[in-house]
Structure formats: C-alpha cells, structure tokens
Design goal:
By secondary structure, the chain is mainly beta. It has one domain (4-183): Lipid/polyisoprenoid-binding, YceI-like (Lipocalin, Beta Barrel), CATH 2.40.128. It has two helices and eleven strands. The protein has helices at residues 4-10, 72-79, and strands spanning 12-16, 22-29, 33-39, 42-48, 57-63, 67-68, 91-103, 106-115, 118-133, 139-150, 169-183. Residues 13-182 form the Lipid/polyisoprenoid-binding YceI-like domain. This is Polyisoprenoid-binding protein YceI. It comes from Amycolatopsis marina.
Length: 187
C-alpha cells in the first residue's frame, strides 16, 4: 500500500499513453479456446485525487475500426453490422461515474460504457501498479483493469450454432486493460 504522502503526490491530470497501454479483450471461440484482441487507437484522460480517490475520474475514447485480433478476415467481420457496425458507430467510449478504494492498491471504478449508441454501466476492478519518472522526465502511473461484460447488452448478438452444441462466439467478453498515463506538468 502506498503511503498518504505518496498518494498525495499522485494527484493530478494524466493523459493515456497509447504506445505503452493496451485496450484488450478475450472471447471464447467454438467453446474450446480463447481469442484475444485489442483496440490499437484510443485516447483518454484521468484525474487522480490521491487523498480522496472518490474524487478521481476518467474518460476513454476508442476508435472502433482499430480492432486487431491478428486475423484480418475476423477483424473485418467484427467491423461489420454482425458485431460492431463500425461504419455507423465509429467510437466506443467509457466515462467513469464512481471510484472506490477497496483496499491497498485495489479500486472499483464504475462508469458508462457506450457501444453502438447503447450505454450501460460497467464496473472495473482496477489495480494501481505503480508510478515512475521515465527517462524523458515524465511522471507516469500504471493501472491494470478487468471486467466481464455480456456483449448482448450492447446489441451484439451474432452467433453460429455448433453441431456439437454451444455457439461459435461466447456472450461473455473479458475486458483486459493495461494503462500507462503521463501526468500533466505545471506551466
């Protein structure tokens, strides 16, 4: 656990560093394996209140077409109306609504996730992984976050039945996020 002095030092506004962050997800495929992917284009900002984490907040905007699972044909299918309908809904957004410290460096962040013009509340389990002064003189913090969502809640319902039972794509999707954020400097 960080000391109160260290917590106070974290207070400030931070920009996400996309080059050192990952907006990932995991879906079960054919009921037997996991497919991992990520969105590679995003930006966001955090306001951290080290003394009173409940006053902290964050927002994130993801460019939906930046989805990358490592297989071009699958990525194109995910961009289509069967899944994200990216020509009509080019962005995915998250805006926090509450931050709660649950112990040590663990937090619960609740917010509004908007996909395909549908907004639903989600709760992320967030772990503060540390802070550092990088070689360029930037103050950085690290965070890891996870949650599991039902894609059906956002109208993403396409699927295909399997002959052996079950479906091709799981409804439950794990969001797996690693954040490196750079603190704004005074002046």
């Amino acid at each position: 656990m960080t000391s109160p002095t260290a917590d106070a030092d974290l207070t400030g506004t931070y920009d996400l560093d996309p080059a050192h962050s990952r907006m990932g997800f995991v879906a079960r495929h054919a009921m037997v394996t996991k497919v991992r992917g990520a969105f590679t284009e995003f930006d966001g900002q955090l306001h951290i209140d080290g003394q009173d984490p409940a006053k902290s907040s964050g927002q994130l905007t993801i460019t939906a077409t930046s989805i990358d699972t490592g297989v071009q044909q699958r990525d194109e299918h995910l961009r289509s109306n069967d899944f994200f309908d990216m020509p009509n809904y080019p962005e995915i957004t998250f805006t926090s609504t509450a931050v709660e410290r649950v112990g040590g460096d663990s937090y619960r962040v609740t917010g509004d996730l908007t996909i395909k013009d549908t907004t639903k509340p989600v709760t992320l389990d967030v772990e503060y992984t540390g802070s550092a002064l990088d070689p360029m003189g930037n103050n950085r913090i690290g965070l890891e976050a996870t949650t599991t969502v039902s894609r059906k809640e956002w109208g993403i319902t396409w699927n295909a039945p399997l002959e052996t039972g079950g479906v091709l794509v799981s409804d439950k999707i794990v969001l797996d996020i690693d954040i490196s954020a750079i603190k704004h400097t005074d002046g």
